[in-house]
Amino acid sequence: FYLLSIGVGLGRLVGSVQGISYAAFVAPALLASASMNGALFDSTFNVFFRLKYEKLYDAALATPMRAGDVALGEITWALLRGALYAVAFMAVMAAMGLVHSWWALADLPAAVLTGFAFAAAGMACTTYMRTWQDFEFVTLATLPMFLFSTTFYPLGVYPGPLQLVVRCTPLYQSVAMLRDLTLGRIKPELIGHTAYLAIMGVIGLLVAGRRIGKLLLR
């Protein structure tokens, strides 16, 4: 629905962007945003409830499982769900004629990598949260990224210093990667985008595992 209303509806008013239709420009960015939001929902709200109220992780750690295994399991579950969403979104993109290259097949692993990065980071942050009100900080971080990480307009609309700020955001890395793959623009920068998200995910996983162990095994 969002792709139809923004990409097609608004696209008729905008016209082309960087030589392609507005719908083709926006679609990969919306896929990246969907991967981010889906991963964050599973790794923040759900994890917080299981950690603070359901006490599920206490029971899991009473088995031979380690804290890192718990974190990895939660993130893997988030990735499985996110992969299903990504496949459905990609099918809609293909049906609408918004896929311009066979490289778009790599959108699925790229979307999963995005989900891994945000799920791990989200779970790590959740281990520091004390009340439901703390989730306002999640919205405070994700909403500006969604609006300003070249989701709806190209990087060139920003002045030089702001371009650097936008480039440093994790959602920009995902948007740029998915947009290039969908359009078949294979550039060396893809390596940097991949490394950024992979490192972010690994750090988040390590922090989440350590924090869960510290909270529940003391």
What does the secondary structure layout of this molecule look like, with pairings?
Layout: H1 2-14, E1 16-17, E2 20-21, H2 22-54, H3 56-60, H4 67-95, H5 107-126, H6 136-148, H7 160-167, H8 170-183, H9 189-216
Antiparallel strand pairs: 1-2
If you compute it from the alpha carbons, what radius of gyration comes out, rounded to the nearest whole angstrom? 18 Å
Main beta-sheet strand count, sense and barrel state: 2 strands, antiparallel
Principal-axes geometry comes out as: elongated
Please, how many helices?
9
Task: Please give the share of residues in helix.
Answer: over 70%
Tell me the series of helices and strands, N- to C-terminal.
HEEHHHHHHHH
Mean pLDDT equals 87
How many individual domains?
1
The structural class is mainly alpha
Widest sheet: strand ordering: 1-2
State the total count of DSSP E strands.
2
End-to-end Cα distance: 47 Å
Amount of beta strand: under 5%
Relevant terms:
218 residues; mainly alpha; two-stranded antiparallel sheet; 9 helices; 2 strands; 2% strand
Question: How would you characterize this protein structure?
Answer:
With 218 residues, the chain is mainly α. It has one domain. Helix 5 runs parallel beside helix 9. The radius of gyration is 18 Å and the shape is elongated. The mean pLDDT is 87.
In brief, what are we looking at here?
With 218 residues, this protein is mainly alpha-helical.
